[in-house]
């Protein structure tokens, strides 16, 4: 979904002009960007949270020449989806807290190579 499609979706929900929809979407994005830029965490219940993560300095490699390049430490934006959003995207992966450990330790049986008896 593009920003224009999101604006179209917002104006379809109410009696809004295109300009009003653009202002709403721009204000939302600008607010999130401003908060994350200043180091704050933005949490939208049922959707996820936006924050920054600190990356350590490292030595990278130029793929064209193979030369080593020093990459400085930096902050990067990070989005963590909520549990509700993850469950909506992956509906069949709901695990019970009680039976999850037993299933993790069991190895799957290969039908072409059954275990020796």
What does this protein structure show overall?
By secondary structure, the chain is of the alpha+beta class. Helix content is 38%, strand content 23%. It has 4 helices and 5 strands. The strands form 2 sheets. It has a 3-stranded antiparallel beta sheet with strand order 1-2-5. It has a two-stranded antiparallel sheet with strand order 3-4. α1 (3-13) packs across α2. The chain is extended. The relative contact order is 0.09. The model has no long low-confidence stretch (mean pLDDT 86).
Rg for CA atoms:
23 Å
Question: Which structural category fits the helices and strands?
Answer: alpha+beta
Helical residue percent band: 25-40%
Record field, number of beta strands: 5
- Please give the count of helices: 4
Please tell me the overall pLDDT: 86
The backbone outline, from C-alpha atoms, is extended
Q: Low-confidence parts, pLDDT < 50 over ≥5 residues?
A: none
In spatial order, strands of the major sheet run 1-2-5
Order of helices and strands: HHEEEEEHH
Strand fraction band? Answer: 15-25%
Largest sheet: 3 strands, antiparallel
- Termini separation: 54 Å
Quick gist of this model?
This protein has 117 residues and is α+β, with helices and mostly antiparallel strands. It is built from 4 helices and 5 strands, in the order ααβββββαα.
Which keywords apply here?
117 residues, two-stranded antiparallel ribbon, 5 strands
What does the secondary structure layout of this molecule look like, with pairings?
Blueprint (H helix, E strand, L loop, with lengths): L2 H11 L4 H20 L4 E3 L3 E8 L2 E4 L6 E4 L2 E8 L1 H7 L10 H6 L12
Antiparallel strand pairs: 1-2, 2-5, 3-4
Helix pairs in contact: 1-2
């Amino acid at each position: 979904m593009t920003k224009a499609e999101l604006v179209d979706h917002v104006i379809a929900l109410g009696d809004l002009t295109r300009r009003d929809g653009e202002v709403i979407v721009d204000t939302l994005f600008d607010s999130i960007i401003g908060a994350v830029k200043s180091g704050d965490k933005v949490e939208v219940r049922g959707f996820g949270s936006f924050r920054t993560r600190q990356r350590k300095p490292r030595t990278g490699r130029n793929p064209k020449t193979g030369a080593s390049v020093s990459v400085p430490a930096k902050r990067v934006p990070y989005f963590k989806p909520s549990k509700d959003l993850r469950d909506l995207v992956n509906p069949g992966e709901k695990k019970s807290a009680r039976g999850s450990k037993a299933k993790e330790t069991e190895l799957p049986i290969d039908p072409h190579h059954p275990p020796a008896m």
